[in-house]
Sequence to fold (140 residues):
Amino acid sequence: MELWKVSQKVSELSDLIPYYFFSLVSSCLSLSTVLVVFSLDTWGVIGIIVISFYVVIPYLLFAVPVQVLFNKHPKKFSVIYFCLYIFFSLPAVFIYSSVLNFDFSMDILTTKNYYASSLLAALFFWFWDSVFLQKKSSAS
Fold:
């Protein structure tokens, strides 16, 4: 590959980095807000901020690489992309929950919270990806 082609690819990616960041931050804040509201704890804004810092790690490890792949063929609010986000969200939430609870048993798979958290994580990331990136990618 020629050097100018590599430079062009890097330039295109660097133009999208702020949109990846906005998508990631919006997803983390949305998910943590819902988790704090439905946990009925009195954490408030502090809980949203703390949980957002925990949630960013699985999003970065599992969702962002898939998001980069999807943005090669942008489709705004694609149901197929949503289903794939759910598919990757299931192991991400399992690993995340197992590590935080120091419980590596398969018992987590029998709880409703596991499936609700996985679905919400995928839903928020898919939504914000469609708002910030898919529209930007399809317009360029």
Summary: The chain has a mean pLDDT of 82. The longest helix spans residues 3-39. The radius of gyration is 17 Å. The helical segments are 3-39, 44-70, 79-101, 112-139.
